[in-house]
Amino acid sequence: MTATPENTKQALRKAAMAVLAHSDAADISERLKAVAMPAHENLREPENGLAMVRGRIGGDGAPFNLGEATVSRAAVRLSTGEVGFGYTLGRDREKARMIALCDAMVQSDQCAGLVETKVIAPLRAAMAVKRNRKAAEAAATRVDFYTLVRGEG
Q1: What are phi and psi of 53, to 5 degrees?
Q2: pLDDT for the residue 91
Q3: Is 0.85 topped by the overall pTM?
Q4: What is the DSSP letter of 152?
Q5: What angle do CA 42, 44, 50 make, to 5 degrees?
Q6: Could you give the CA distance from residue 63 to residue 40 in angstroms, rounded to a whole number?
Q7: Of 67, 76, 121, 122, nearest to 96 (Cα)?
């Protein structure tokens, strides 16, 4: 299977949404200040709701309903026609709106590069630093166990 421009664009969009969903709202807001906001309208005002969380149990992985999680969502359309969607766990409506705006801008040919360099890349780097710090803290508590073999044969 060859990579088409559409598949590449979808992969970049997916990667950007993963970074934004796992970032703090304050960090996203701070990064967005460096980007000139294009004209846009809210297609769906940010709102809170519930989503069913499913789990799997047993040897065969039979699915079951684990419970409900609070989710915030929003939809934004740029004046150039790109539509962005934002979903995040919790009740942070503003974060959902910012994610939707970034999603729409990532799809735009005029804004994609700027959003990637000013918003997504710094957030991705901060996430990597945080992940590496946690890994180093965990590695510091690592204990190696050695098994001694008895000399009897």
Answers
A1: -100, 125
A2: 95
A3: no
A4: -
A5: 145
A6: 40
A7: 76
Helix (H) or strand (E) holding 151: none
State phi, psi for 148 to the nearest 5 degrees. -90, 135
Residue 46's nearest CA partner among 96, 104, 91, 101 is 96
Name the residue with tokens 């950007």: 16
35: exposed, middle or buried (Cβ count in 10 Å: 0-12, 13-18, 19+): middle
Is residue 131 helix, strand or coil? helix
C-alpha dihedral, 117 to 122 to 124 to 127, nearest 10°:
180
CA-based radius of gyration for the chain: 21
Within 2-151, strands assigned E span: 40-57, 62-78, 83-89
Residue 1: pLDDT band with limits 50, 70, 90: low
123 neighbors 20 (Cβ within 8 angstroms)? yes
